[in-house]
Amino acid sequence: MTSAAPILQVRDLLKTFGAVVAAKDINIDVSKGEIVGIIGANGAGKTCFVNMVTGYLAPTAGSIVFEGTELVGKGPREVTHAGISRSFQVSQVFHSMTVEENLRIALAIAENRGVNALRLMESDALEAKCSDVLRRYKLEPHKHMTVSVLSQGIRKLLDIAMAVVSEPRILLLDEPTSGISVEEKFDFMDVVMGALKEDNVTVLFVEHDMEIVERYVSRVLAFYQGEIIADMAPDKALADNKVREFVIGKRH
Amino acid sequence: METFLTILLDGLQFSSYLFIVSAGLTIIFGVMKILNVCHGSFYAWGAYTAAFFIGKFSDMGLPDALGFLIIIAAAIVVGVVLGLIIEQGILKHMYHRDEVLIVLATFGLFLVLEDIILIAFGTDPYFAYQPMALLESVEMGGVIRDVYGLTLIGVATFVAVGCWLLLNKTKWGVILKAVIFDREMGISMGINVPFVYTLTFIGGAILGGLGGAYIAPTISVAPGLGTEVIVLSFAVVVVGGMGSIAGAAIGSLIIGLLRALAVHELPQVELFVVFAVMAIVLVFRPEGLFAPAKPRKI
Amino acid sequence: MLRDTTSKVVLFGGIAIILLGAIMPNWIVNQLMFGFSRALAILGLLVLWRTGLVSFGHAFYFGLGAYTVAIVDIQLGVTDVFVRLFGGAIIAGIAGFIIGFIMRNYRDIFFAMLNTAISMVLYGIIVKTESLGSTDGFAISLPTIFGIAPETKYPLFIIITMIAMISALLINFYLKTTVGRLTTPIRDNEIRVEYLGFSVAHAIHLKYTISAVLAGGAGALMAMSLGQVDPDSMINWTVSGELVFITILSGPGNVIAPFIGSLVFEVLRTYAFELAPQAWQLIVGATFLTVIFFLPGGIWSLIAKLGRKKS
Ligand SMILES: Nc1ncnc2c1ncn2[C@@H]1O[C@H](COP(=O)(O)OP(=O)(O)O)[C@@H](O)[C@H]1O
Ligand SMILES: [Mg+2]
Description:
The structure holds 3 protein chains of 3 kinds. Chain A is α/β, with parallel strands linked by helices.
């Protein structure tokens, strides 16, 4: 444990949609380098939390401080510039372009902010970086394929690869393994977590599969009806009565 | 006072015919996500077909009251024939293409159908005043009005109530609403979406044709008819919110009344008052006044 | 910047056309002037079209450019071809930049319709305003070049061709920059573009302004080529429709396409009016449908296919 200030501080976060309370009393401190698993039943508010941290949804109240700067009020683009990226429950990629083209444009945007966007996009440096990402995320065999013909798993890998090209310090993954078969899940997570380890990035990921949670995370946040009902080490969380009842759906 | 009443009645009549046409346009958009430019052609074909046969029947010495039957028949025939040909022959093959490309295709169709009207009916105007003459006129608060024009308001009300009942009180309405909200969801619910599309397009086309057929007796049916109406009903559905029947009703009232006001009080602005309203509404309410709800994306 | 094939073709093709212009009959030179002028506007629409945006109201900027020429001519006696051209392009560009703040929030048909609405408002104003020439418009005096009044149209033709070349080269470059490449990505998934850290609104605003400048320049050149302006051939929605038609006909594949498409359109129109004056709309409509169905890449895709076969 480090004594340094947490990289992400969430305070009294609240989000309501009319009568629906999607987030309430959320208070979290995340330290640099942590791998945090977010669990909870469908509709518990996990995606909503990710959306608020990354600027897609504005919280009704509360604050989100990243490396000392307030994120509430910033949109997705500004949050990306601040150093936080995310992946999506349903992969958000450019479906009529090839894998390589997807990565190339992602890298170019990350490199060329502001007026630099008016420079020629293609360069040898860009190509080198692109092949590096393709290699690390095991996307090379598919690089010339149009995304819309690829399997869910490859799309999810691409989705994550595109999120990390901006070299974020925090990465939020929303259900990275949803839509991927049970047999492939571990291989998939090995690729992702292996690549992320090289980058030394703090990761928060939403996951339904408890085996994966146990294997990769150092800490678990359990959501239930918009509130955090447990914030503890994975082994403790899985043994916790409330978590077993409201998240995993087993009675004690 | 009399001017006010004239403006009000003119406006309402104008709104009524705009509504009948726009209701068809907005239903097609709501269900199929197609902004159908050739809707203007349905209107024009409805008007020409009705005018042509009303004239023919009258020449043959048949009773003028048959005119009302002709109007309804013209709307149905035009809607079914043109609607079926266009949906099955062209649009069906484009559903996977870009939304804008489909609009452009319907624009191409519109141009073709406009010229076919010229070739089929010639450039001379048609007059089919018989049904209007039959109903004579009444005096209301000091102004004299054609009864026929007033029945237009009744027809529009009938269409509005009919659409509302269809959407809210029938099994069909449930299906339509599901497809309107989210096509993919509709498919996963087991709805035969292609069939719904075909019926919707025909239904919308019939409304377009009805607008033209019913208005035919009150105007000189001449080339260029479709252009004016398509531009106006676009304004209506954009103002009201694309895909919303209630929106089409409100939009028709706003555009119809404002235009009647401009015609009587400030003819210089008649031409662009419609577009100015449309631009203002779009700027402040990009989705129109009654934007239908959208499914969540992420 | 000039190393790719397209740039070379633009450069050498342009020079060849300028030289050939000296020996070509007048009517061909005229058609080329109209075609190239209009092609500038198409070039701008191509930039939008690649991003999935179709404006059904760019006659607004075309008309602004044309009317700027008329007004500086009549009010201020400005005859210089460059002052007129840049005046038209800049006025249209400023208008496009301002309106762009609104337009960048619209997509699909809403984008198309809002553009139509503003162009029709301008059309309505001009038609009803006596001092703006009403439905008759204005005649424009012949342009001068560096103070000299040319005897033939050839010097104006050279200038139009050169402006066309420069614009094509600049747009060709722009399309290869990062923001220029943000075309399919914006069509496919705006949320992702934002999350990658690029403002979709800014990208579209830039594209829109570029298209306005080009349409304004096109209008200015067209006004000078024709020697007159009037609302029906400059600002009415049919003009916008024509511009969209030529854009689709040309295809989005290359900056040369708008020039070929515009020339094909000029030829098509000339012959259609001779052969079947009653069926002009039918021909346009049927061509439109044919291109959309069977040639989604426009005329350019045919040329690209030929090019691929050869190499
Ligand atoms: N944009 C929205 N509009 C309305 N309700 C929403 C919206 N986003 C989320 N919700 C509601 O908030 C709650 C939490 O949803 P979500 O965060 O997606 O759950 P999950 O934990 O499955 O990711 C749900 O009740 C959902 O219906
Ligand atoms: Mg979720």
